Each structure stands twice: as structure tokens, then as C-alpha cells.
Amino acid sequence: MLVTTDVDADCARLTEAGTPVQGPDELPWGRMATFTDPDGNGLMLLTEAHQ
Length: 51
Prior knowledge:
alpha+beta; 4 strands
């Protein structure tokens, strides 16, 4: 899991680079998206919810 301050912007950059991204989805702990790297490893991006 990779924590970021702006999951939406990161997902846009990944999509523009040709990487399929699932999400981001709104969850109780924050906004999260998943993608796969060129080696097939699943990765998650998370922007934590402010409490």
C-alpha cells in the first residue's frame, strides 16, 4: 500500500500513462485505488480520511 495526499491526481497520471486503475473508491478509512505494476504485482494507493 502506498499512501498519497491526492489519490485522484495519482490515478489520473497512471491512467494517462496507460495503466488500468480500479477506483478510487470512497471507504471509511479514505479513498483507495488499485493497479498492477508491469511485473503483475498488485498495488494500492490510499489517501487517508481526515478525522
